[in-house]
Amino acid sequence: MTMLISMAAFALASSITPGPVNIVAFSAGARYGVWPGMRHVLGATLGFTLLLLLIGFGLYETLQQWPFLTRIIQWSGVAFLLYMAFRLATDNGQLSLGDKAVGPSMIQGAVMQWLNPKAWLASIAGMGVFVANGEATLIWQFATIYCVVCYLSLGCWVFAGSFLSNYLCSAARCVFSTGSWRCYWLAVRCIC
């Protein structure tokens, strides 16, 4: 029982903290509402769970045998983070709630997790801590717990975005919020 609680605490700590997927979930909730945002959350959760399972069942060892694959993943992650930084830097600060554009899809949510360095680190660290011996039962338990916690954590970001959408409609507030995210990204990149 203690192991399951530890797994859940690890999943919560790594899922609820800000990262690229959380920011997109927040933005989707603010711009498109809860249900379109939850579509992104479902995709991100399933994408992460698949990544976690594959790492648990041997993907990490495969990447160690073929280091060029690791480089491809790393550079894809760098490109993704640069793209996110560019989008934040060029954002005009306007939140148009009447926009009929479609929010992020399930597929986009899943792909984001595979390009997200935070997801890779959490997967490798979690499997290393809780499933070091590769026992299949523990891998499935950890993945199941993580799936539920990840979905609920990302869902909180969607609900927060939806709740704050009226507040963010003010151009000055939206520019401040976008500027805050820019500063956050800059600080994270400098630390890492």
TrEMBL record:
Transmembrane segments: 41-60, 72-90, 138-160
This protein's UniProt keywords: Cell membrane, Membrane, Transmembrane, Transmembrane helix
GO cellular component terms, semicolon-separated: plasma membrane
Source organism, top-level taxon: Bacteria
UniProt topology in membrane: Multi-pass membrane protein
Compartments, as annotated in UniProt: Cell membrane
UniProt-listed InterPro entries: LeuE-type
Major subcellular site: membrane
The name this protein goes by in its record: Amino acid transporter LysE
